[in-house]
Specification:
The complex is a heterodimer of chains A (147) and B (282).
Chain A: H1 2-38, E1 55-68, H2 71-83, H3 88-108, E2 114-125, E3 133-145
Antiparallel strand pairs in A: 1-3, 2-3
Chain B: H1 19-50, H2 54-65, H3 74-89, E1 100-104, E2 111-114, E3 118-122, H4 123-126, H5 132-147, H6 150-171, H7 175-209, H8 217-226, H9 241-255
Parallel strand pairs in B: 1-3
Antiparallel strand pairs in B: 2-3
Helix pairs in contact in B: 1-6, 3-5, 5-7, 6-7, 7-9, 8-9
Classes of the chains: A alpha+beta (147), B mainly alpha (282).
Chain lengths: 147, 282
């Protein structure tokens, strides 16, 4: 009986977290794509010097985001890590986080002509073998050229 | 250098967003590997257990049975031991152990066959028994486990199961979900063994007492116990009691054992005997 209750809780949590997680991921991706299209004209480059024009202003811009790993994703990730397979749930999560971080950085640099020397970082938040969440950070130098 | 804004729709970093298919694929892999390991190692453990020399078994037993060394009801214990001895003397195919029964003061309605001939009967079961025939059939059932070496097979498989669970526990946080499914799978084995022990008990009882009277009553006791906390057949170790009674009734008809007298319990007719508690009676 106790087993059945434990199973019930586990399975309902799992299914619930799958549907919520999938819904959230889809919604987030949709918003990312829209904003990326809107901001595509602002270049974010890894180059240190892009154009030979006088610069009037530079500033450090940063965008960071933390995305929680839901129960479903944690379970699938630990299954995949048993066999040394690609953890596609984590791939999707990291991808979302990085793109969101770049977007936030670009939004921070509104009005700039370019963001140069862009760096990206990702890290895991959580205990030993649990993924409570992941953080992605993007930073670079926003450059304003003289008109 | 000229910057040309261009948006790329295709995401090379995330090949698929279908996480559910991924989950199913990984689960099937894991289950396949677990069952594979369990069957191979479990089979090996069973074969080893069957060939384990009695001397070695006694050495293993020392560690397990030390908790059950002394019975809690000395006079009741002595009475059960007499019945057990008479059963053992007419039994066939038993490994050469010194068979010993111990009564344990615990409300569990059960009896267990521990290695090297140590049978433990719990007070909960004992207090439900009304006749000597019932006591004898319980003991004979446990002797059946020894005759079929089930107690060791159980140990061997249990060890393999525990190793798998430990391995899973170390590498991920899944055992809570996986462990019951492996165990449920093993119950089928366990049920077949219980039925075999039942039939052995019937044969042994008929040989010792010359008839098979009053033997089915003990299953009625079990049926009463299970009433109310009835679990589905697939998650129970002992086969569904009513099914068990039916199977045994058929078996009795097949073997044509005569019905005989039912022997009452000595003294006041209850077990354990009144005023029989360790320390008081001696």
């Amino acid at each position: 009986m106790e087993d059945l209750i434990a199973w019930g809780i586990w399975i309902s949590l799992f299914v619930f977290s799958y549907f919520i997680g999938t819904y959230r991921e889809k919604a987030h991706l949709k918003s990312i794509v829209e904003r990326e299209k809107a901001l595509v004209s602002l270049p974010a480059l890894t180059l240190k010097f892009a154009e030979d024009r006088p610069v009037v202003k530079t500033e450090l811009v940063m965008g960071s985001v933390v995305i929680g790993g839901d129960f479903f994703k944690q379970t699938v990730a630990s299954l995949a890590s048993l066999f040394g397979m690609r953890i596609s749930v984590a791939e999707a999560m990291m991808d979302r986080a990085r793109r969101e971080a770049v977007l936030r950085m670009k939004e921070k640099a509104a009005g700039a002509d370019a963001i140069l020397n862009v760096r990206m970082e990702g890290m895991k938040i959580g205990e030993r073998n649990k993924i409570t969440g992941i953080e992605a950070l993007a930073c670079g130098t926003a450059v304003y050229y003289s008109k | 250098m000229k910057f040309e804004p261009r948006y790329c729709e295709n995401n090379v970093n995330v090949p698929s967003h279908n996480h559910f298919r991924e989950f199913i694929r990984l689960s099937l892999w894991l289950l396949g590997i677990i069952f594979g390991v369990y069957f191979v190692l479990g089979y090996a453990a069973e074969k080893i257990a069957e060939r384990l020399p009695p001397k070695f078994e006694a050495a293993i037993a020392a560690g397990i049975t030390s908790d059950f060394d002394h019975g809690d009801f000395p006079r009741t214990n002595k009475y059960l031991q007499e019945i057990l001895d008479s059963l053992v003397s007419s039994a066939e195919g038993l490994p050469p152990f010194k068979y010993k029964v111990t009564v344990h003061d615990q409300a569990t309605v059960n009896a267990v066959a521990l290695p090297a001939g140590n049978i433990v009967v719990f007070k909960g079961l004992l207090s439900e028994l009304k006749t000597e025939n019932e006591v004898a059939i319980i003991l004979a059932h446990e002797l059946g486990h020894y005759a079929h070496r089930d107690h060791l097979r159980g140990l061997g498989r249990g060890l393999v199961l525990m190793s798998i669970m430990t391995a899973l526990g170390l590498s991920g946080d899944l055992p809570a979900f996986i462990a019951p499914s492996v165990q449920t799978f093993d119950l089928k084995h366990s049920r077949d063994r219980e039925s075999a022990a039942d039939r052995y008990a019937m044969d042994l009882f008929a040989r010792a007492y010359g008839h098979a009277g009053g033997t089915l009553d003990v299953f009625k006791v079990l049926a009463r116990q299970e009433h109310g906390i009835k679990r589905p057949d697939i998650v129970s170790t002992h086969p569904d009691t009513l099914w068990r009674m039916q199977a045994l009734t058929n078996y009795l008809q097949l073997k044509k054992y005569p019905q005989g007298s039912i022997r009452p319990l000595p003294e006041s007719g209850v077990l354990p005997f009144p005023n029989d508690k360790k320390g008081k009676a001696e």
